[in-house]
Amino acid sequence: SNTSVFHGGARSLLVTGRTAAWNGVGQNVTSKVINGGNYTANVWVRTQGGTPSAKVTLAVAANGSTSYIQLAPATTVSPSSWTLLSGSAPVSWSGALSSAFLYVETTSGTDSFYVDDASFR
């Protein structure tokens, strides 16, 4: 955790050492999702440098295949201030759910970024 840059509280999560745009931070939310439910994500993001677009994606694995549901649309983030990534989407799958992971990533580049005050409901 990072204690010098934060949105709320006294620390944030810093994601570094990324080698691809889809490298980000993930949270297992398998036990939180119900088939056919509508879910909202709110995540505050700030970069260390650079101004990529960041997004919030839910990866749902069921019956041997994974689908990627975009919750928060791609939004430009910057090092000068915190940006709220927010959005909702219906979530459904067929068959047995294997896993559901919430990811914060960028659409391009490998900029390091901070994540704080994330919610998924």
Structural overview:
With 121 residues, the chain is mostly beta strands. 0% of the residues lie in helices and 55% in strands. The chain contains no helices and 8 strands. A 4-stranded antiparallel sheet has the order 1-8-3-6, with no helix packed on it. The protein is globular, with a radius of gyration of 14 Å.
Gyration radius over CA: 14 Å
- Assess the beta-strand content as a share of residues: over 45%
Largest sheet at a glance? 4 strands, antiparallel
Order of helices and strands: EEEEEEEE
SSE map:
Elements: E1 13-15, E2 25-28, E3 37-47, E4 53-62, E5 65-76, E6 83-91, E7 97-106, E8 113-120
Antiparallel strand pairs: 1-8, 2-7, 3-6, 3-8, 4-5, 4-7
Summarize the structure.
By secondary structure, this protein is mainly beta.
Keywords:
121 residues, mainly beta, 4-stranded antiparallel β-sheet, 0% helix, 55% strand, globular
